[in-house]
Design brief:
The structure is a single chain. By secondary structure, the protein is an alpha/beta fold. It contains five helices and five strands. It has a five-stranded mixed β-sheet, with helices on one face. β3 (66-73), α3 and β4 form a beta-alpha-beta unit. The protein is elongated. The relative contact order is 0.16.
Length: 155
């Protein structure tokens, strides 16, 4: 039995002229198929790489004939991979090994703890919570800082 690497680029079907999508895409900094293929062949021996264009193509792959599945996340946390993660965890024999290789060259074991962490990071990335909190803090605190400077004679 051999290993199967699955590559899926969620950004190929998104409208990057939308400012939100463009911002999230920029922050995720996804790697190309060629880059991920090169990385996978260097990290794993005897690996077959499949580039899927949508989640439904997974139904056409016989996962049981592979000893290990490697998910090639083009970014650090696998934005847009939730459906694929769910499909793999439900349809792949749990006794076999599932690994994630992300665009930052990190190898992550696919288990429930790591998957929960990735989902939480994906939520933060998509919701822009950190950026929103910083913006609110900046907008609210700026007038007070200006008044403080003016009262102390700073210009």
């Amino acid at each position: 039995m051999s290993k199967l690497a699955i590559y899926y680029d969620t950004w190929q079907k998104k409208n990057l002229s939308n400012i939100y999508n463009k911002g999230v895409h920029f922050k995720s900094n996804p790697r190309s198929l060629e880059y991920m293929e090169d990385l996978a062949t260097k990290k794993f021996e005897d690996i077959e790489i499949k580039n899927i264009l949508n989640e439904d193509e997974l139904n056409n792959i016989d996962l049981d004939k592979y000893s290990e599945i490697v998910l090639l996340y083009p970014d650090a946390i696998g934005l847009g991979w939730s459906k694929i993660d769910n499909y793999i965890s439900k349809n792949f024999n749990q006794m076999k090994k599932i690994t994630i290789l992300n665009g930052r060259r990190r190898v992550i074991v696919f288990n429930s703890n790591n998957l929960f962490g990735l989902r939480f990071k994906r939520f933060l990335e998509k919701a822009l919570i950190v950026e929103t909190i910083f913006t609110i803090y900046f907008v609210v605190s700026t007038p007070f800082l200006i008044i403080k400077d003016l009262l102390h004679g700073k210009k």
